[in-house]
Task: structure prediction
Amino acid sequence: MTALSLTISVPNNFRSEGVLQYYGRDQAGVSEKVSGAGFEKAFWVDGVPAYFAINFHDDKVSVEADVDARLKKSRLQFIVNSLVSRVLGLLQPVADFESMALEDHILRRTIIETRGLRVPQAVSPWEALISSVIGQQVSVAAATSMRSRFIKGMGTIHSSGLFCFPQPKFIAKYNVHELRNFGISSAKSNTIHSLAVAIASGELSLEETPSVDSDFEPISRALLSFKGVGPWTVSNTLLRGYSFLDGSLHGDMVVRKKIQQLLGKKTLSVSEAEQWLIQYKPWRGLLAAHLWAMR
Result:
């Protein structure tokens, strides 16, 4: 085992409650769990189960991490430092969005209440993608339950007792019908298995992180080519897996309800929500996160 401790600075207005809410969805604590002012998460490092525990303190976070193998501490430190910064959304240019939103008469009140919000990230695009597929058209509670059962049934346990999210090559070896044992529908099971097979075979790659927003078009098209992957799944995956802040989540029921509330409308169609969000390019995904947090 290789272990380390480190400290990472965060902005003064960093909103830790958003991160704790995101990583505290699973009350069973299968792959991640929140305790006090921090959370723990299992993940993969070079194909080996690893783990970190993050605790928030004013303008910094303390991190304890380890991997269930002998690894150069310098490499583990680099991986964990990069991963924690990404998971917390520390590199997201939220100040640019807030400057615009505070000048907008419709958004101003909401942004004042949620100022400093960043979009918490999944530990990998793969985990963001499959979690998005599982979460299609079901409640958060139902999605969380299915996801927990899926991870515990097919994931790999770390010495902390938390499970690492199952890797594509592992899922690809199983019969698609076995995914139904975790409460996942037949359609979603087929989608998850197809994605796993494509990644395991090299047909699809999620590893490269586009350097500019326009570069997300190829991966969006690739994902949309899979049956069972629609615009909402792609936008949510890009938001949670790549910190892409302009995916339009007009298909999200909560987002539509909050827009409806902001506009004082009795009803709001999907197409109307889509058209309204266009004016806020390139921040539609980040705006969706603010709407989710809106009281």
Q: What stands out?
A: The CA atoms of residues 47 and 101 lie 42 Å apart. The longest strand covers residues 48-57. The chain has a mean pLDDT of 93. The two ends are 44 Å apart (CA to CA).
